[in-house]
Structures are given as structure tokens and as C-alpha cells.
Specification:
This protein is of the alpha/beta class. It contains eight helices and nine strands. The structure holds NADP nicotinamide-adenine-dinucleotide phosphate.
Length: about 260
């Protein structure tokens, strides 16, 4: 049984990000969509990037001043073309996915390429496009979305876990690369969040996906978005570094409390 605590987060505009231009990749679903909503609620103009144009257009209609950008983050040239001209203040390269839970010896090289190209190279493509402008303007926020999977591997997690370990390593590198440029670098590493993530992982097998969350008081996308909001609304001198977020039912990647459903 879940706690039932599903109170909506207050979305009243606080205006803390008025005048800022934010970029969220993977804004068509789950955590990215929730982040886009809170940044917009804080007054930012949000560039909503993902491949699913229909979902982006729907969200754009709800979020005043936002821009829908159909973009595949794996396409380095397209990312550079679309993002380099924009003066992005806040970049959240959140787009990511997992495919299956097969052991390496049975894994699919096509799935591995999709995961690594999206979760690792996709993040790099975005950073390459937006950070030079931030450096020139001497300010900016980069908030990576890692995972507890980047800190603890689990059976069948292999390539997804490796991709998120790479994001964590990139976070550390970025702190050096961007040191003393005025840019703040953060990573938010969530545990189990209920989103379409597992539907994508299991390629549309929604029954199997639902079992991942059955009986668990899992995190919500809004919980992660609220933390991103906190990070980017701190005073300029404050850089929140790494935030690991678990639901109270999850002690580790493998240790999850489940109640009868
Ligand atoms: N859910 C969890 O338990 C959990 C835990 C820890 C970390 N995370 C991380 O959180 C991030 C968001 O995941 P989620 O849970 O919100 O899953 P989700 O609901 O499936 O959202 C994934 C987003 O990524 C976008 N995306 C995928 N491939 C893309 C590509 N090539 N180019 C552009 N956009 C692409 C998808 O949009 P389109 O299909 O429209 O392109 C979608 O908007 C991921 O990086 C994931 O690894 C999730």
C-alpha cells in the first residue's frame, strides 16, 4: 500500500527565474516534463526538447512563453544547430532511457548504442552547444540527471548503470572544466521514480513495467523537479553539488520494501 501522499506541489509563479531561459531535454515525459513545469512556474522561459513533437506542443500550450523543440540528442549536428544560437541560462540535459535487463552475454548491441548515445553522448552534445555561451556571459546552471544506478550496479543493469556512472564522472569533470567560469554544476541522482521509464525499458510491456513499482511508495517526477527548482534558485554563490534522492522504501538499488497491493 502506498502512503497516498499525492498532494500536488504548489505551482504558483514565484518569479525567482523571471528573465531566464532554461533548456530541458526529455521534456515530453516524466521527470523532464515535471522539471519544465516547475521552471516555467518560477518564471523561466523554457525550451522543451525531445523527439515527440505532439507531446511537446501540448506542453508548450500550457506553459506560457515556452518553446517546443523537436530534437534527437543523439544527433550532434542537430543539437549544435538548434542550441548554439540560444542564450541558455539553465541547462537540464535530462533525456535518457534504459533498454531491457538482459545480462551482457545476451545483450543487444543496438540497445547498448541507443542507451549510450542518448545518456552519455546526448548529454555531451548539449553541453558542447550551450556552455560556450554560458562562459561568455559568465553565468549559468548545468543540472545533470544521473541515477542511483550510476552509483550501484544491479543485475541486468549493466549498460544503463555504466551510462549513469559516466554521467556521474562527467559531473566531476565538468566541475573542473567549468571551474571559475561562473557556471554552477550539479547532479541529481534519483532512485525509483514512477514515470514511463520502465515502459520504455520493457518496450511497451506495461504489465511488466507496472511490477517494478508495485507496492512501493516510489518517488514522483515532481519530487525530482522540486529539487532541481531548489538547486537553481539558490543565491549565486551557492552551488549544490550532488543530490542523491531515494524514496523511503528504497535502501539500495536492490533493497526495496514492497507491501501487498
Ligand atoms: N524513472 C526513474 O526511476 C529514474 C531514476 C533515475 C534516473 N532517471 C533518469 O531520468 C531521466 C528521465 O527519465 P524519466 O524517468 O522521466 O523517463 P521517461 O518518462 O521515459 O522520459 C524520458 C525522456 O527522454 C526523452 N528522450 C529519450 N531519448 C531521446 C533522444 N534520443 N532525444 C531526445 N529526447 C529523448 C523522451 O522523449 P521522446 O521519446 O519524446 O524523445 C522522454 O521525454 C533519464 O535520464 C533517466 O535515466 C529516471
Amino acid at each position: 500500500m502506498e502512503s497516498g501522499d499525492r498532494r500536488p506541489y504548489p505551482l504558483a509563479t514565484m518569479g525567482n527565474l523571471a528573465g531566464k531561459l532554461a533548456l530541458v531535454t526529455g521534456a515530453s515525459s516524466g521527470i523532464g516534463e515535471a522539471i519544465a513545469r516547475v521552471l516555467a512556474a518560477e518564471g523561466a522561459k523554457v525550451v522543451l526538447a525531445a523527439r515527440n513533437k505532439a507531446k511537446l506542443t501540448k506542453l508548450q500550450a500550457e506553459l506560457a512563453g515556452s518553446i517546443a523543440l523537436e530534437l534527437d540528442v543523439r544527433d550532434a549536428a542537430a543539437v549544435q544547430r538548434a542550441l548554439e544560437p540560444l542564450a541558455i541560462d539553465i541547462a537540464v540535459p535530462n533525456a535518457g532511457l534504459a533498454r531491457g535487463v538482459d545480462p551482457v552475454q545476451k545483450g543487444s548491441p543496438e540497445d547498448w548504442a541507443e542507451v549510450l548515445d542518448t545518456n552519455v553522448k546526448g548529454v555531451l552534445h548539449v553541453l558542447r552547444a550551450v556552455t560556450p555561451g554560458m562562459i561568455a556571459r559568465k553565468r549559468g546552471d548545468v543540472v545533470l540527471i544521473g541515477s542511483v544506478a550510476g552509483r550501484q550496479a544491479y543485475p541486468g543493469g549493466n549498460v544503463y548503470c555504466a551510462s549513469k556512472a559516466a554521467v556521474r564522472s562527467l559531473y566531476e569533470s565538468l566541475r573542473y572544466d567549468l571551474h571559475d567560469t561562473g557556471i554552477r554544476v550539479s547532479t541529481v541522482d534519483p532512485g525509483m521514480v514512477r514515470t514511463p521509464f520502465s515502459d520504455v525499458r520493457f518496450k511497451g510491456d506495461t504489465e511488466r513495467a507496472a511490477k517494478v513499482y508495485a507496492g512501493v511508495d516510489h518517488l514522483l517526477a515532481e519530487d525530482i523537479a522540486d529539487i532541481v527548482r531548489f538547486i537553481v534558485t539558490r543565491p549565486a554563490r551557492v552551488n549544490i553539488g550532488e543530490v542523491v534522492v531515494w524514496s523511503k522504501d528504497q535502501a539500495s538499488a536492490m533493497q526495496v520494501a514492497r507491501r501487498p497491493v
